[in-house]
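User: Predict the structure for this protein chain, please.
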Amino acid sequence: MAAMSLIETIGRTRAELERDPALRARLLELQHWQVERLKRTYEDFQRQPRYRDAIEFFIGDLYGPHDFRQRDRDLKKVLQSWQRLLPQHGLDAIARALELELLTQALDLALLEALGAAPLSESSYAEAYRAINRRKDREHQVELIVSSGRLLDTLVHHAWVRSMLRLARTPARLAGVTTLHDFLERGCAAFAKMQGADTLLQAIERRERAIIARLFDGTEAPFEVA
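Assistant: Here is the predicted structure, written as structure tokens:
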């Protein structure tokens, strides 16, 4: 699915959520719960200055319970010109991040439907997770996280990318796309600070796949992985 089509599909789902305040509140509760789980899973990386900003970017900017509407509106404004300016791996990184957002949105809503009115806990989450039976989608979600990270890591090795972002601050403000620009600057700065993302990305892939397996197997304490 092309990037513009992904943005429009995400926007339609968000519009539906806006018409259902109760569902939106429940979704925010789920997202906060999952963010806290991710913080516990990657606490060892969070403690290391080299990885701290990247963990905060992954958890906060790519997954956290933020309102991404302005960022995506900004992206719609500049997408056509970026398709002429950015290298292919830059465009691929944007497309995969959007696909990840759309898939995560769908999985969260399906999980909420399975949860029903049950209070959110580790056991109720695990039961709903198994009930919706979306293992392939969960594995694809991990693939998108890791591949987006690898593409972004490749991109930040080009010094001109960071220079271009710095020079674009004023034009971004004048064009009304500061939310998107700030998002990109945070991501590039976080990945540049790591000086190589392989260790973190390998840990994410290994741990998240192990958690998927433990959840589907009904293992006790499914999120306790090394």
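Residues 3-217 form one domain.
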